[in-house]
Amino acid sequence: MSDHHNSSASQETEPRKDVSDDHLPGERRSGELAVLDDPFADPGLPPHEHRRQDIDERAAKRSERTVALLFTVSMLATIGFIVAYLAIPIDEIVYIFPIGHISALNFALGTTLGVALFCIGAGAIHWARTLMSDEERVEERHAVAATPEVKSHVLAEFRKGAEESQIGRRKLVRNTMIGALALVPLSGLVLLRDLGPMPGDKLRKTAWREGSLIVNENTGQPLRPEDITVGSLTQAMPSDLDHHDEDFHAQIAKAAVMLVRLEPEDIKDPRSAAWGHEGILCFSKICTHVGCPATLYEQQTHHALCPCHQSTFDLSDGARVLFGPAGHPLPQLKITVNDEGFLTALGDFEEPPGPSFWERG
After folding, report:
1. What is the pTM of this model?
2. How far apart are CA 225 and CA 343, in angstroms?
């Protein structure tokens, strides 16, 4: 029994010998590791199959006419876009099933522009799939810096590609494509009209006129000098503006002002003092950075702060900029008192109020 077990143990612990030195095809020995020579062989490209258009000129002509038709439809759609933009009233509403009631102008513009762009894309795709060369080639990667030989090869390939695209031979396709690509940008050019007329001098003029009463922006009541106390800030506007006017918001955005009263000896700028009345100064409250109301007033320092980007203006020194991104002082309005004792303007601002713009000096 003991000998039998010893014999079995010796058989199990003895290193197993290979029955044969044969191994898998394409496998080589490297110590204890077997490695496949080429586990992912390149299968190569399948044989090239010619399209019908390659062997039948009549089929090629039909494809050429199809591409030309798509480009022609694109041109007609672009012309339709321009006609619709000029002819359809902006407030006309139509019923389109199943969308419902929509703007006739928006529907016409969207439809015609969509057709114009789609036909250019569809024409280019059909051209590439049926008339241009579809033979596949394999090119090895090369260094980024091209050699003269490579450059000449690229130029030769470019010329060959141009020849294979048949752009010179298929004049109908070429001419209609050029027409479609030349016309479709007109859609964007026409839309520039919606940017409105040029502002002219509108940015430089506000609702302030000589003799305009200065009224409290909240109550609409005319202001007297005694209504403005030292250390206070009052927001005001010209009496010519009416909250019910259609362009009220456009006008108040330029004409809104703030009144502060300082002790005459605290006013550092003589010109600013001369434009005021008994220490009452009137400045545009529209920040010269991006147009926020700069009406956070600190009476001890006479500083006005814009809460949007912290531009700070010294109202005792002509509202010059002390801090922040604003590029110009707040424009000051010349004021006086009329015969009835109300504060009035002596004219408009001498420089445009609000943010800087391209024509501002």
Report:
1. 0.50
2. 7
